[in-house]
């Protein structure tokens, strides 16, 4: 998908996004629990970059659990970012946040970050070189040994295992009150508009973007999560 198509899609979905996925919130809760544990050794005054922050789930969780941390929320969809900002204000954490509407390449930070999050974002980059370049942009914004927690849909779509996982995933979507038409569109999107790749292939793309070998710390259905450390080739 092109950048303008992605932005338009999420602008359209923003108002009902959280309500639509409310029944899948246990997955996010588990991801956030493991995310917090994975980043537990960061400094008490850590500065965190949240790429493609959406409506702000991981930001709200991390900020609530770590009152000394500060955050930069980067999101191309203005409608999604508005919801994120509103939620941050309600949680009384907005004073610790910078909100940037746009893609990562439009954000020029004066300082390096201790860690970054990037959940279900890189999968929209179908070109492998562009996907690697995206991770390279994140790596360039991190301090030496800075951490990246990322997640994407992952599977070998040519394997029998994928059909089993996809079927279960679609049943979960049905239970979450997603319409049959929307599920069919989702199935087609996974085949044509989303870069669903084997987990090992995604890990290699992250590595090629300037990170040490990623460690998978999470899986729920098709969602896989990795923790990666910035490699030494980027200058601080």
UniProtKB/TrEMBL annotation:
Q: Which Gene3D superfamilies match?
A: Vaccinia Virus protein VP39
CDD domains this protein is in? Answer: AdoMet_MTases
A GO MF annotation of the entry reads: methyltransferase activity
Keyword annotations for this protein? Methyltransferase, Transferase
Return the InterPro entries for the record.
Methyltransf_25, Methyltransf_Superfamily, SAM-dependent_MTases_sf
Locate the Methyltransferase domain: which residues? 48-146
Instruction: Kindly give the PANTHER family that the UniProt entry links to this protein.
Output: METHYLTRANSFERASE, N6-ADENOSINE-METHYLTRANSFERASE TMT1A
Q: Name one GO biological process term.
A: methylation
Q: Which domain of life is it from?
A: Bacteria
Q: What is this protein called?
A: SAM-dependent methyltransferase
């Amino acid at each position: 998908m092109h950048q303008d198509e992605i932005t338009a899609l999420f602008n359209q979905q923003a108002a009902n996004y959280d309500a639509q996925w409310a029944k899948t919130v246990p997955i996010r809760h588990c991801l956030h629990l493991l995310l917090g544990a994975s980043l537990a050794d960061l400094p008490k005054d850590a500065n965190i970059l949240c790429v493609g922050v959406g409506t702000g789930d991981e930001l709200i969780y991390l900020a609530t659990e770590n009152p000394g941390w500060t955050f930069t929320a980067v999101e191309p969809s203005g409608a999604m970012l508005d919801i994120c900002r509103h939620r941050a204000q309600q949680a009384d954490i907005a004073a610790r946040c910078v909100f940037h509407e746009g893609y990562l390449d439009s954000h020029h930070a004066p300082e390096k970050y201790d860690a970054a999050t990037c959940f279900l974002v890189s999968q929209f980059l179908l070109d492998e070189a562009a996907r690697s370049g995206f991770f390279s942009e994140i790596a360039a914004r991190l301090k030496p040994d800075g951490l990246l927690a990322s997640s994407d849909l992952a599977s070998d779509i040519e394997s029998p295992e994928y059909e089993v996982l996809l079927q279960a995933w679609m049943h979960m979507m049905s239970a979450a009150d997603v319409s049959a038409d929307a599920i069919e569109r989702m199935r087609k999107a996974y085949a044509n508009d989303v870069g669903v790749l084997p987990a090992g292939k995604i890990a290699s793309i992250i590595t090629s973007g300037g990170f040490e070998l990623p460690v998978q710390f999470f899986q729920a259905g098709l969602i896989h999560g990795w923790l990666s450390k910035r490699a030494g080739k980027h200058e601080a």
